[in-house]
């Protein structure tokens, strides 16, 4: 029983799978097209595609001979939504405020 | 040899670890404070903290008795940066454009 977001993060925790998603963001591609630039066997690429498919990050066409892979962005939208809750920790404004508070602290201490 | 982003995604692929980060976004906390609401042993919580620490998502204070955990947002900023490249796939504008193109396609097909 893995929750959806955990499955998404787990699928993204691999540079090959992220490279595949980046390629698919330019349009649909077959397994052979996806495998071409990758330094691994076709079965290895297929295993990565299966992980991406199970996480809902890609879907595959129904045609038996030519089953193009297609990016599905909903899980990525969920990741963006999750991480957005932490935005205030790196926004410029927050950094400047923190720096300012540290400076004030320094003056008090000194 | 795991790349930084893969290590971050891997660390985030667990609901307990994400709950710990959410708690720390409200401020520093000790291991005991973090463990209190969690349905698991203190050693189990410590193992999760170790994964978060190794991924650079938290740091821990130096004091031996009271080693507060602190959220470190840099890896989360990197996640936000990575996922932002896919934003066009779920932005309203894109959805509407896609829907419009589908409608046009439907008219051509019909």
From TrEMBL, chains A, B:
InterPro entries: ArsR-like_HTH, HTH_ArsR_DNA-bd_dom, WH-like_DNA-bd_sf, WH_DNA-bd_sf. GO terms for molecular function: DNA-binding transcription factor activity. Residues 1-91 form the HTH arsR-type domain. Pfam families: HTH_20. This is Transcriptional regulator. It comes from Amycolatopsis vastitatis.
């Amino acid at each position: 029983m893995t929750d959806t977001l955990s499955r998404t993060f787990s699928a993204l925790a691999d540079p090959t799978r992220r490279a595949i998603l980046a390629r698919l963001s330019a349009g649909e591609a077959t397994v052979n097209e996806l495998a071409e630039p990758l330094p691994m066997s076709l079965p290895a690429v297929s295993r990565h595609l299966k992980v991406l498919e199970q996480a809902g990050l890609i879907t595959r066409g129904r045609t038996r001979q030519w089953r193009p892979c297609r990016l599905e962005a909903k899980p990525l939208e969920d990741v963006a939504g999750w991480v957005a809750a932490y935005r205030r920790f790196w926004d410029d404004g927050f950094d400047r405020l923190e720096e300012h508070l540290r400076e004030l602290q320094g003056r008090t201490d000194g």
